[in-house]
Structure prediction request, 238 residues.
Amino acid sequence: MVMPKVRLVLLILLQCSFAFADPSIGVDNYTYFGTTAEPAVLQWKASNGAVGYELRAYLHEQQIYIWIGSTTELTFTYQLPKSGHYTFMVRAVGAGDEFSTWSESTNPEVALVDEQPRAWWRYGYVAPPGPIIIK
Amino acid sequence: MPKVKDVILTFPPSGSPDVVGYKLYVQLANDPVTYDSESWDLGLNTTIDIATLPGMTTKDDIYNLGVTAVDEAGNESSFSLINDVPLDFVAPDPPGPLSFVNG
Prediction:
């Protein structure tokens, strides 16, 4: 069975500061619902001076950061490892191995939903089994 | 002992990466399957003989069946459903008595 892909958009904003604050849980967050069997496609806009990008997620139910990976592309396909609410973060990596601050999907200043500034997160739930067959 | 036909139920597994088991729900056909219906833990088995499940009904009837996936946190998926399944767990009475007719 072909599972639909969900496209999520994250706008990166290069800054000099560096912070590790927990992502906020905002009531205005737009929620992308989907099963944990459906890969999420993260996408962001290029940052000046970046030679690559790093991504991580925050799983709110367990209050843990999850390293997603690094890429030189502007998109990344990711399958949620377990159920829950996820905030995504991306940061730019410079040629000298310096980093931007994290751009968080829950920050409407650097996040987009349908090309409009808005905070978002994704809720992944367990995918049901396939159709039952009785023999 | 009478011989009862196997009723094999099978389903493709969930695509979620943290599934630790499946649950089978059984409900008489005049009611929908819900999370309160009688249920059986299937472990990670995706093919089972319904008649061998401990405590399974032995009443011939029409049933609605549902299967869910369960993740490591205990969350359950929505149902994969099949409705109006005739289950026949009871063998017919044997014929008889058998006589020899001297022709």
